[in-house]
Amino acid sequence: MLAKLNQSASPLSAVRLRGYSHVLFVLPPNVAVGFPAADVLQALLKRCGMKMGELKKTPLSGNLAHGAATSWVALDADKTPFELQTIVRKAITPLLAEGPEKIAIAVIGDARQRARAAELAVYAAWLNGVALPERKKKPSRKALRQIDLFGHRARDGFARERALAEGNTLCRELTMLPPNELTPKHYRARIAQLAKQNRWQREEYDFRKLKKMGAGAFCAVAQGSSFDKTADGGDAAIVHLRYRAPQAKRTVALVGKGICFDTGGHNLKPPRYMYSMHEDMNGSAVALGILLVATRLKLNVNLDAWLAIAQNHISPAAYKQNDVVTALNGTSIEIIHTDAEGRMVLADTLTLASKPKPDLILDFATLTGSMHTALGDRYSGVFATSDALAQQAVVAGKESGERVCVFPQDDDYDAALDSTVADVKQCTLEGGGDHILATRLLKRFTNDRPWIHMDLSGSSCKGGLGAVASDVTGFGVGWGIALIQGRE
């Protein structure tokens, strides 16, 4: 649950200041006077050999006379949203690390400066003040319960920032749950609960139903899990959720990879690369986060979320190299590597998602190591079916602070996926350009609909990314909302 927000358009007074143990001051450039504790800041700057303008690059933390922990940061309007989110996160993190129950945020400057500073600071406080999953006897810190904002009052209570924080937090919470707690069965139960709470229509295609339908690509991955797939339909499923806006004229399909744990199958991952594979369901969590934000904001768009939920296990029943399976759209696929399971479950899920002919398909997946090699963990890679869509993806990345890089997907890459025994190879063993080859494979299942594929190399970043201080970033939720709203 996000912290309660109290707002006051009045500035933080010296008298009120003494009532807080944790205070964040957000300043415009080169303002050194006119706010409580300005003298403390001046003394700290002198001691550190810094000038006021340097607070635009490096926040400062210190203690006030009554013992309060305080951070000061200055915002430069010429900086990008990502840069502004990052510096505010760095300023507020040392305060929240102490686990306060409440925090005061004081924004200084003219009306426009205060409004922007308040948006950034409240958003960062909501995002990083939550208690994320951990199973320690003594929790690392308590959740933030109250934010008192001084200097600006938003009439809507920062509705957009609150919704984005809720969606991002849901994504991170689900992604961080240990795999023995978030099995496909438990995940489906949690989704059912979310659907009931948010009045989403829900339909499930379980293993037995998918097998009967001919979804051989999805079932090839799911068949390796050790459960009775005939008695109750198994625990793997494609889950379909629907959000409908009464006046909407557009429909967007959200597709998410939901592999709750990925061993690599018969092509077993080494321990270094199997660790953290409970996070391989992050794409589905991104889709859920976007759906939650859209619901909270009552966006004027119809959304269909299609979540491919399964595990990739090693067992006598698991699929193997040289198997040939037939996907839901009739395409036969030669299995080359069992650790390329994401494109298998997404193939049949994209077929289902594209059948109603949505105006746009957005799919999210922690899909390839080669994307991480290409970009590291500070960007995510995207592929789009048109230059216009690619440009919209980049703009949404800049506006949301979740930066993306566009990659090519030209037709001549298909030659690498030629198979002598099937319509297409699942991948190659050479590994070069695998993020591109995976996209070329997935495109066969989109029914030629407008489509953006995001390979989530930015789903986890050591030390945080943008406004988010946790290693798991929730990357994609803010981007997805910015893209959808930008197309309204």
Summarize the structure in short.
This protein is of the alpha/beta class. Helix content is 35%, strand content 19%.
End-to-end C-alpha gap: 30 Å
The CATH class of the largest domain, by name, is Alpha Beta
Question: What is the percentage of strand-forming residues?
Answer: 15-25%
Number of strands: 17
Q: How would you sum up the major sheet?
A: 8 strands, mixed
CATH architecture of the largest domain: 3-Layer(aba) Sandwich
* Distinct helical segment count: 15
**CA-atom Rg in angstroms:** 24 Å
- Give the strand line-up of the largest sheet: 7-8-10-9-13-17-14-15
Describe this structure in words.
With 488 residues, the protein is an alpha/beta fold. The protein folds into two domains: 4-151, Leucine Aminopeptidase, subunit E, domain 1; 164-486, Aminopeptidase. It is built from 15 helices and 17 strands. It has helices at 14-17, 38-48, 81-96, 111-128, 159-176, 184-198, 207-213, 216-222, 271-274, 282-297, 342-354, 369-375, 387-400, 434-443, 477-486, and strands at residues 4-8, 22-27, 60-63, 69-74, 102-107, 146-150, 201-206, 237-243, 251-262, 302-312, 324-326, 332-334, 360-365, 380-384, 404-406, 424-425, 451-455. An eight-stranded mixed β-sheet has the order 7-8-10-9-13-17-14-15, with helices on both faces. Strand 3 and strand 4 (69-74) form a beta hairpin. Helix 5 (159-176) runs antiparallel to helix 10, helix 8 packs antiparallel against helix 11 (342-354) and helix 11 (342-354) runs parallel beside helix 14 (434-443). The radius of gyration is 24 Å and the shape is elongated. The two termini are 30 Å apart. The model has no long low-confidence stretch (mean pLDDT 95).
